[in-house]
Amino acid sequence: MKKAIGLTVGALVLAEIAVWMGQPRAAARAADAIGAPQYGTDGKLVRPAGYRKWAYLSSGYGMSYSDKGSADGHLMFTNVFVTPSSYDYFVEHGTWPDKTMFVLEVYGSSSKGSINKHGNFQNEFMGLDVEVKDEHRFEDKWAYFNFDVKEESSEATKPSKNDCWKCHDQNAAVEHSFVQFYPELLKIAKDKKTIKESAHIG
Ligand code: HEC
Q1: Which has the least CB within 10 A, 105, 122, 131, 144?
Q2: What are 37-93's pLDDT values in tens digits?
Q3: Best of 129, 140, 174, 184 to mutate for ligand 1, by most ligand atoms within 8 A of CB?
């Protein structure tokens, strides 16, 4: 844990130096590697390009939160990643530290391709949903962003307590994260007793 914080601080310092030297790309790369949120001069969140090397939490398939399901019946996969040092922190405490960032990537699905005869696999990339815990920057602590297939930066979804924020606030098991759908984290949250009383996890 101490090591993780040391690494995070070290990488943040490197990112600061890179900004200071006028190398925003190097800064973005350094921040990306550790999974710290990075904002442009316009205040938009920079696309977290390196998230595939972060900690992988779980995947959903065709998940829908309304009775109807998806309008066209096309089921999507979602893969969730989190800042590596935040993952270490969660293992120890069962909660998320400030500057945690989650990426949910969306993929289409197919059952027909190559040698596949049954079941479904992921095919075309459809975009990213991003959630950031940044207590000083956002008055409601958690902020939400959408990136299409290649957008470089994105503005926080407004108003601050929007539909994303509300659903996560009301239904997520731990703080704003849907740990009830990430089996390995759920065990930790149960053990640390950090599941919100209001959450339906069963
Ligand atoms: C009606 C409820 C609901 C709304 C509205 C909603 N989400 Fe979520 N979100 C979920 C659920 C359930 C999960 C669990 C995992 C999944 O879907 O794969 C989730 C997971 C996530 C995750 C992964 C980390 C986590 O918190 O578990 C991100 C990132 C995310 N949502 C972003 C967004 C963004 C951005 C919006 C708004 C544009 C949004 N969500 C709106 C229910 C919601």
Answers
A1: 122
A2: 999 999 999 999 999 999 999 999 999 876 666 666 789 999 999 999 999 999 999
A3: 129
